[in-house]
Amino acid sequence: MLNEPSGPTEPNELTELTEPTELNAPGAGLTALPAPAGDPASLRRVDLAWNELTELPPWVGRLPRLEHLQLDGNRLRDLPDLRGLTALRDLHLDGNALTRLPESVPELTGLRTLFLYGNAIGELPEAIGRLRNLRHLAVGGNGLTSVPAALWRLTGLRSLNLAENSITEVPEAIGGLTELRMLDLGHNALTRVPEAIGDLHGLTDYLYLSDNRFTTVPASLGRLTRLTYLNLTDNRLTVLPAALGGLTALRELRLYGNRLRELPETIGRLRELRELHLMNNALTGLPASIGDLSRLRQLDLRNNAITSLPGSLAGLRSLTHLDLRNNRLRELPDGLADLPALEKLDLRWNKLDGDPEVLHRLSGRGCAVLR
């Protein structure tokens, strides 16, 4: 860490290192990086994030003990030769202006984390496959249209972020990344989900597949029995496979912005589900099994074409928010009044017949009813 200055400090001035293992100057307004007053050779951590750096001096690439280098949010277009960073484990370069992966980076074979999100890298080299110890890779928000075959051989990856590119295809080789816990393929130009997605048995945290061009998803998706969050929003899905019911650990399912006309009956098997988001589809009804989701807290059905609700909704004993705006409802099941946790029911832009008693019962016990 740097000494506290006794008075105003020039943006490019680094005071003497008091802890020779760390150099921390995030958000310090630096436009250039002079050598610190102390000996940098013992540095283990350097944090220069959120400055205005456009280049780094060569000495940064010659720190033999450095383990963590954080350079997010600068204006770097290139890097010096980093092959001297033989102890480096974490390299953070999000939000810079890099147009290619510097040649020395694949030589850093001890890297466990490589973050390159939000640069302008149009292509990754096959040499990225040398990073066999990599656990976390983020190359989203670049200009990628494809990724090299070598990437799919990084079988130790725990998280992979390829979002916000223009990738058109993901090969079946993705199935070899069985250690993945998080995978983000959202906001690309994919037209199919590979069957091998079902081989990613380690997926526990998140699977983002939003904003692509999928019309279907494979039944193999249902083999991801440990997955807790699935996002398939803003695609072109018209149906879901019955195998979706195999996602028995799922807690949040986001399906809004598709063309779904119905839900599979097997959705009732998702007993751990807390949130179900289905707005902006073409649903005309719900399966009776929806009432088996006893832990569901939020159910969003805005902007569909639902004409009636199943009486089984009374089984949603944990439901706190039910959004039914802009559907085609004329009446409501009496069981809605018996939902003990319901705090808000939104029925705006429906045309209910008369003045249903169920709404008076709900509002009478403190539920906010909007109609």
Automatic annotation (TrEMBL):
Transmembrane segments: none annotated. The keyword Repeat applies. It holds the Pfam family LRR_14. Gene3D superfamilies: Ribonuclease Inhibitor (3.80.10.10). It comes from the Bacteria. Residues 151-254, 266-349 form the Disease resistance R13L4/SHOC-2-like LRR domain. The keyword Nucleotide-binding does not apply. InterPro entries: Leu-rich_rpt (IPR001611), Leu-rich_rpt_typical-subtyp (IPR003591), LRR_dom_sf (IPR032675), LRR_domain-containing (IPR050216), LRR_R13L4/SHOC2-like (IPR055414). Keywords: Leucine-rich repeat, Repeat. This is Leucine-rich repeat (LRR) protein. It comes from Streptosporangium brasiliense. The lineage of its organism: Bacteria, Bacillati, Actinomycetota, Actinomycetes, Streptosporangiales.
